[in-house]
Design brief:
The structure is a single chain. The chain is of the alpha/beta class. It has a single domain, classed as Rossmann fold (3-Layer(aba) Sandwich). It is built from 8 helices and 7 strands; from the N terminus they run E-H-E-H-E-H-E-H-E-H-E-H-H-H-E. The protein has a 7-stranded parallel beta sheet with strand order 3-2-1-4-5-6-7, with helices on both faces. Strand 1, helix 1 and strand 2 form a beta-alpha-beta unit. It is globular and about 45 Å long. The termini are far apart. The protein binds nicotinamide-adenine-dinucleotide. The site of nicotinamide-adenine-dinucleotide has 31 residues, from helix 1 and helix 6.
Length: 266
């Protein structure tokens, strides 16, 4: 059995998921971390969704707690870090997974409120969780942070605020990694590509009014690697590696998990 995270305490944000047929990134990361021996604090705006993840982990004999918090709010991030330390005595791993898209089509049509909302939820949230978790990691002299970015940060896509906020996540990763490297804290990020998750399929088919099967086919055909889109598990396996001690010499990495999408021309 995989015990790479035995004895570790992890916080995963966005550990619930958008309802749908497949597994989301945050839920897959949480389940996989628990399978690898971590105790996981499942943070989500929607407590019921985090509790569903908790039930999945419980059925497999793992340990987790579900916690309601809005990670775009400083006070909620402070309470999250405090609750984790109170419950488990330490914080070894933080996965910043929360992120949203939206009707984000370019500078003329994009509403200012939506730009602000996307930046608050995708980028400011990661600053805030780091702000309140890092002091615990610094005291321990160790820690691993994994931020979930997107290939949109580096590939040409029409989404303006989403792309720019995710480019900010890559930059935040570099900045925090350099500031905390000498303290034994590693900070890396993952850029998932086209994934078959409820947020991407059910979410976008609703938002764009596209038939779900057509959307799946269109996304599959854009992935260079045979097999089409990736899944939440692909993101989770990369997060597990980066969070574990196997990655002890890896910090400030920006890892695409995208079936080759970043290298594709056109
Ligand atoms: N699915 C893809 O194709 C894809 C591709 C690239 C990147 N990503 C990134 O993956 C991440 C999430 O993927 P997912 O599959 O877990 O999505 P998801 O929508 O299934 O889950 C996100 C969870 O975050 C929660 N949430 C939203 N706002 C919150 C807030 N302010 N505070 C706390 N919780 C909040 C939601 O309730 C939801 O349960 C995002 O950062 C996204 O940008 C996804």
């Amino acid at each position: 059995m995989d015990k790479r995270l035995e004895g570790k305490i992890a916080i995963v944000t966005g550990a619930g998921q958008t309802p749908g047929d497949t597994i989301g990134n945050g839920r897959a990361i949480s389940v996989l971390f628990a399978r690898a021996g971590a105790k996981v604090m499942l943070v989500d705006l929607r407590l019921d969704s985090a509790q569903e993840t908790q039930a999945m982990i419980g059925r497999e004999g793992g340990e987790s707690i579900a916690f309601a918090a809005d990670v775009s709010r400083a006070e909620d991030c402070r309470r999250t870090a405090e609750k984790c330390a109170e419950t488990y005595g330490r914080i070894d791993i933080l996965v910043n997974n929360v992120g949203i898209g939206g009707e984000d089509r370019g500078p003329v049509d994009l509403k200012e409120e939506l730009w602000d909302r996307i930046f608050r939820i995708n980028l400011k949230s990661m600053f805030l969780t780091c702000k309140y978790v890092l002091p615990y990691m610094e005291k321990q002299g160790s820690g691993s942070i994994v931020n979930i970015s997107s290939v949109a940060a580096v590939c040409a896509v029409s989404m303006l605020a989403y792309k720019t906020s995710k480019a900010g996540v890559n930059a935040l990763t570099h900045s925090v990694a350099m500031k905390y490297a000498s303290k034994g804290i590693r900070v890396n990020c993952i850029m998932p590509g086209l994934m078959n998750t409820p947020m991407a399929i059910e979410g976008f088919s609703r938002l764009l009014g596209i038939n779900k099967e057509d959307l799946i086919q269109a996304r599959n055909s854009r992935v260079p690697l045979k097999g089409g889109m990736g899944s939440g598990w692909d993101t989770a396996y990369a997060a597990l590696f980066l969070a574990s001690d196997e990655a002890k010499f890896i910090t400030a990495a920006v890892l695409p998990v995208d079936g080759g999408q970043c290298a594709k021309i056109g």
